Amino acid sequence: MAQDTNTASTPPIVGLIAAVAATGGLLFGYDTGIISAALLQITPDFTLDTLGQQVVTSAIVAGALGGCLIAAPLSDRLGRRYMIMFAALVFIFGTLVASFSPGISLLVFARFILGLAVGMCSQIVPVYIAEIAPREKRGQMVVLFQMAVVAGILISFIVGYFLQDRSWRLMFGLGVIPAVILYVGMSLLPRSPRWLAMKGNLEGAFEVLQRLRRDPAVARTELDSIIAMHDEQAPWSALLQPWVRPALVASVGVALFCQITGVNAVLYYAPTIFAGVGFGKSSALLTSIAIGVAMLASTTFGSWAVDAWGRRTLLLRLIPGAVVSLLVLGTMFAIGATQGINTWITAAAVVSYAIFNVGSLSVAVWLVGAEVYPLSCRSKGMSLVAATHWVADLVVSLTTLSLVQALGAAGTFWMFAALNLAAFVFVLRYVPETRGRSLEEIETSLKDGTFSQMK
């Protein structure tokens, strides 16, 4: 393996670039999370039944699916930075429409528009950060995106709690602030050096790498490795080539399990579920804030662990904790334990599930997707990862309340426990260890058939 770039040679601008880009994750988290509190007001305002609640919730997910698919060809053509700026403008438009929606139809439309922006950010922000970060800090920097996502979720829970007796329109409207920050910030940042190289602008790529790596010799070495691995932009069919398939299986599998293991069922519907079993609206919203704090803490830990432990090791160590937490949570609902000490056990099980699941699968999903594909089809591969994530999320958001009605809360959480166990088996079999390897070294491992042997 090539010698790692000296961490001391990485200038502060690299972290600043990653932080600004990750603001897209803050919007992602806020706009997906705020519905959990807003739904408690929107439901009586528009007289929504279970199906109506699920449609309002899932509209943003349907939009995200479309957004992540259109982002790939556009980001390859126009560049990663411009696509993030465009997504910020879409966020602003969708937020304003949602805030002033006079009826449910326009609100669903606005949520769909917000979803387009969320989908674009989920596809392109991790790719942009991965392509500007040095290898030894890539995991930590890409996870900044997920950290911003959970920070946005936590902020949405806090806002929802303090505005629970006021206006859901204001809940949505506050999202315009980070959207403006994202647009202005991205307008000042450089383009991806790997995108510039892919477009044939080697001089521009070298100039950006000099800013990012500080040492011209290091920048030249990195550019030479990019050029050596460079291929023309590949069509979608390239993802089905046998040598690319291991990356496809690993990244898409992690994206699928990230959703079907239940994290967004808890995120979207925790207040509704807990209020329905006797916690009361205020207590249910406070439980959501505790979940948000746990998610942020576990993501902060995960941002360290992906580089200190490794991506694969983190997943294998934390997923079993999610299984146990869900088994306990299901048991508490099965015995109707929502009073006294049992209430605290139930809340602790939810919080511990959030810690173990978010700290593993949610931390790894965007990182694995952004780093395992070859440059020629990286953007399209990441689109497929994001699309898988959002399709699974759409299914979860459309069915969770119906599952709770059909199986009961206990049966639903036990089902998610089984899916977390399946995720553990999948990681053990198909997900390699990419810690400490450059993007070009990972691409080489795909081409020489050693990708699956990286443990």
Automatic annotation (TrEMBL):
SUPFAM superfamilies: MFS general substrate transporter. Coiled coil: none annotated. One of its GO terms (cellular component) is plasma membrane. The chain crosses the membrane at residues 12-35, 55-75, 82-100, 106-130, 142-164, 170-189, 247-270, 282-306, 318-338, 344-369, 381-407, 413-431. Residues 17-435 form the Major facilitator superfamily (MFS) profile domain. Keywords: Cell membrane, Membrane, Sugar transport, Transmembrane, Transmembrane helix, Transport. It is found in: Cell membrane. It comes from the Bacteria. InterPro entries: MFS_dom (IPR020846), MFS_sugar_transport-like (IPR005828), MFS_trans_sf (IPR036259), Myo-inositol_Transporter (IPR050814), Sugar/inositol_transpt (IPR003663), Sugar_transporter_CS (IPR005829). Signal peptide: none annotated. One of its GO terms (molecular function) is transmembrane transporter activity. Its main location: membrane. It holds the Pfam family Sugar_tr. It is a multi-pass membrane protein. Belongs to the major facilitator superfamily. Sugar transporter (TC 2.A.1.1) family. This is Major myo-inositol transporter IolT.
